[in-house]
Amino acid sequence: MTAQPAAIEVKNLGRSFGTTRALHDVSFTVPQGAICGLLGSNGAGKTTAMAIITGQDRPGSGEVVIEGKTPFESDAVSEIISFVRDNQRYPDDFRLHHILRVAPLFHRDWDSQFAERLAALFGLPKRTLVKKYSRGQLSALAIVIGLASRAPITVFDEPYLGLDIVARERFYEELLADQAAHPRTFLISTHLVEEMEQIFDRVVVLNDGKVVLDASAEDLHGQATEVTGKYAELTEFTAQLPVLRLRKVGSLASAIIRPGLTSAQMEEAQQRGLSTAPVALHDLIAAFGNTYSPDADSEANSRGSQE
Amino acid sequence: MNHKIAVTRLHFSKRAITFLTPAAILLTVVLVSVIVALAIQRFDISVSDPEYIEGFKQNTGVLYSLPGFLGYLGVQAVSTTFPFAMALGTTRRSYALGTALYYGLQSAYVAAVAVVLYWIEKLTGHWGVGAYVFDTNGVGSGNELQVFATVFAIAFIALCVGGAFGAVFLRFGPKGPIIVAIGLVILFALLLLATLPWLSHNFTSITRWDYLAVALGLAVVAMLGLYGALRRTMVR
Predict the structure, then answer these.
(1) In A, which residues are within 8 Å of B88 by CB distance?
(2) Is the pLDDT at A296 greater than 50, yes or no?
(3) What is the bridge-based pairing of β-strands A210-216 and A202-207?
(4) Which residues of chain A make contact with B102, given a CB cutoff of 8 A?
(5) How far is B171 from chain A (nearest CA, A)?
(6) What is the pLDDT of residue A300?
(7) Three-state secondary-structure class, residue B49
(8) Please, how many CA atoms are within 13 Å of residue A262, restricted to the half-sphere of its CB?
(9) Could you tell me if A264 and A273 are in contact, meaning their C-beta atoms sit under 8 angstroms apart?
(10) Which of A18, A192, A238, B74 has the highest local Cβ count within 10 Å?
(11) From its phi and psi, is residue A48 left (phi > 0), alpha (psi between -120 and 50) or beta?
(12) pLDDT under 70 in chain B at which residues?
């Protein structure tokens, strides 16, 4: 539970495409004013969830509630949302000035000066047709639209694609500065977990269309523990523990245990000669999304389980 | 700003294609008609010859020159702006209504250009060479209201049908418009077959206004089809 009221409430959301289940019983809440990371491996359901949250798609089951309304075909919700996709299509013959002229028509709080400054900061060409922009330039354009919209709920779908580290740092700085000056809610999907983790107030991790982790930034530590040591000792120690992923390299192995170990379990591990360490968020997501390891034998992999 | 108006203004943001191209098409028809008139006069045919006037008044260049471009404009208006409008924040309903308003205003603009050209045609003695382009049986017949109504109806139905096909493309992919087109051809053939006995008896009593009413009815049906297709379209 959070002290802030909810900006986005996702309740038992489900969505299938033919026989493929994209989302299954997904529930989470994004508090007002939060920067929430929506994480997960490819095909986890992030973009589908974002499309439903922003009213671009309708749920198969369950619902999304924003300001007391369901987003699909809601004029009230569409007023307060910006969602530029990672593969956003723009009108064929549009240039930058067309975008900057049209976008304010849809966002009452649009800041034209900010948009111009961001476009210059990211070096967006003015004369080039938008359809001829590079991957990085398209991402930068999406960032300009999303940030300058000042939409109360701004959704970014992998906004860093094609951007170099300098441009990404600029994005994070502008995002944080503008969020401080004009508090609003951000929902951002990313694979650059290690790089973006610091800007998130909250993290929701999807795997195979289900929520596998929903925690605030301060609660992330201690979500899982990595135990490493001799394979035989490790398998004996983890026999009764919830192993998320087990990897074996020669006679050594490592296991990610979730939830994290208790103090007593930590002590027992040390007595067995096993070392323990908290699991970084990106390693945890990798463990959720992929139990494959080229160094692990099939027996070890078969023990990996997902919650 | 009201999102329906925002969508309308989004469509008008490409000023060259929305304002200049339709005017250029009509001016091209004028130019071609003038060349034809000059060519005819090289055979010593007088521009005041009633037979010449009646023959030139059958000129349907205006009627045939517009639908192709405006149909394309209708298709691309929907297929290229819908995903962007959804990204900026609108509903499918607002998008369809804003697009319908754009089609109406775009048609009114094209019709207004036609009326202005019609006036110029009358003022200049049919472009100074006896070329009948707008003062024709099919377009105006000496009445600017008829010029406006006829060009408006042609433009509006071309845009709406194009928009419906654009929406079907977004909803069903490349095969969608082909299947819908085949279906419509079969449907119209059956309708024609069913109404042929009635038409053969009443053909002469059908007025221009009846045709316009049917055209506008078809445009409304096309717009409903556009909204119906977009309502279930995945945004990509």
Answers:
(1) 82, 102-103, 105-107, 145, 149
(2) no
(3) antiparallel
(4) none
(5) 13
(6) 42
(7) coil
(8) 4
(9) no
(10) B74
(11) alpha
(12) 1
